[in-house]
Design goal:
Structural class: alpha+beta
Organism: Buddleja alternifolia
Protein name: Transcription factor RAX2
Keywords: DNA-binding, Nucleus, Repeat, Transcription, Transcription regulation
Largest sheet: 3 strands, antiparallel
Number of helices: 11
Strand order of the largest sheet: 3-4-5
Shape: elongated
InterPro entries: Homeodomain-like_sf (IPR009057), Myb_dom (IPR017930), SANT/Myb (IPR001005)
Number of strands: 11
Subcellular location: Nucleus
Amino acid sequence: MGRAPCCDKANVKKGPWSPEEDAKLKEFMEKFGTGGNWIVLPQKAGLKRCGKSCRLRWLNYLRPNIKHGEFTDEEDRIICTLYASIGSRWSVIASQLPGRTDNDIKNYWNTKLKKKLMGLINPLHQAKFSSSPFSASTQLLTQPLSQLYRDYNSFYNQAAPKSLSPIEAPQNFLYNFPLSTTQYCSSYYQQNQEGLVDLQYNFNPVKDNNNMLIFGGNDQASCSSSDGSCSQISYGNKDHVKQEEIVGQFQGLINSNNGFHNYGKNFNGDPIMSGLVNSQLQCDLEEVKQLISNGNDNINLLFNDENKTEKMGMYYF
DNA sequence: AATCCCGTCAACCGCGGTTAT
DNA sequence: GATAACCGCGGTTGACGGGAT
């Protein structure tokens, strides 16, 4: 024998909530809280609703400190970064955005943010940067990372030096990418004496023991969740690094996404980049995700100012 | 003015893990 | 231990409003 049914399914109201229902629920919650049981709440509060419906209404709309309205650029950046790292775990993403609900973020992603990103990387825009050595074609690249770095600087120093402001990103940044549910790959980037970017990488069969994703160095930002079940996410120190360093990171990330197993060094000892860089950009969701993932923390480049499209083209090739 | 189309978002549905009986 | 509800989550739906035709 199990429990008694939670409610009389035939006698509960469905559909949009009326202001009167909202008022009842809000008043009850403010006086008594859930009491740890959503199922009996509607009865006590005098609502002809299923407890599940009450819970949703409260969490997504009525509870205090809910933020409605436009998402900020910073919020955009966080959503993109986390989506690239952990996928559609909206509750975890929501835990990083105080006042935002998972439902809100999910809707925002599906209706706006995803399209925004796809629009930014459309072929027309690609054409604008077709002279970039990084957007030339869909091809297999096997160049030393340092050469890519030089090419990139050479190109963009001529093309648009003024629009590239210093980029905020952690230095010596440790990225963790999910390989599977039990395996993560870490890629580690540093600037060497010549100002070029070396790449170190290793495979960690140790996903987080505590469901923790680590995005950076030593400093951590705390995380809390409305339901107490949050996965923890910490960010590293936010040293400023120069554009050149970002380039190195970015190259490495592309490589990461095109197959970790191909990672390696050439005969000269230079890290090589191997894998397809797709300039056709037929953007389905997975590809948007991949593109975000390529930029990873550098996604903040997209949300810096009015010239978002301009910057997108520069950094996504 | 009527209709269609599309974007938005609140709410529902169903699943998987957990918990009470 | 078995059963069935609870709970939280992510995917999907459908009502609504505004713009286009």
